[in-house]
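Q: Given only this backbone (160 positions), what sequence would you predict?
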């Protein structure tokens, strides 16, 4: 059930920017925190929606890695990768904000880029760190359960 929900959320993230373009004025309203959206043309909003899709695809990939881990817990590397992607998501979101503002600007030289740092960025970082911590706490550091069962170690000193 959890695996299916993660996949549905990932698909929702991918569908949102595409579906929102069916009503361009509604999509403009979702960008109300960006002043540039008020004067943006339909083509500029389509560019922003494409950038929005890329940002959401990044997050959807993290969800799909989590879903894959839930379905096959013998692959703890998926959990670590999902954690790393979640930790880096705030950077991706700030990049999206900047590129979206550039795409909607009429005069790029007179652009006043406004980067918002939000508390949910800390949440993404903490969740990602937690997923990586769970992987490390189990002592497998990204190894498969078969490697753990064989007694393989990632420690350089243990191999010498």
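A: Predicted residues:
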């Amino acid at each position: 059930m959890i695996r299916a929900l993660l996949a549905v959320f990932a698909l929702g993230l991918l569908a949102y920017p595409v579906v929102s373009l069916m009503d361009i004025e509604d999509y403009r309203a979702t960008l109300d925190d960006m002043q540039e959206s008020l004067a943006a043309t339909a083509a500029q909003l389509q560019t922003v929606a494409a950038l929005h899709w890329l940002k959401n695809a990044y997050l959807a990939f993290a969800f799909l890695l989590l879903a894959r881990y839930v379905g096959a817990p013998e692959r703890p590397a998926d959990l670590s990768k999902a954690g790393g992607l979640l930790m880096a998501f705030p950077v991706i979101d700030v990049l999206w904000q900047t590129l979206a503002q550039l795409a909607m600007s009429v005069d790029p030289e007179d652009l006043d880029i406004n980067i918002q740092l939000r508390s949910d960025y800390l949440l993404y970082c903490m969740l990602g760190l937690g997923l990586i911590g769970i992987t490390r706490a189990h002592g497998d550091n990204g190894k498969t359960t078969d490697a753990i069962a064989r007694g393989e170690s990632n420690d350089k000193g243990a191999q010498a």
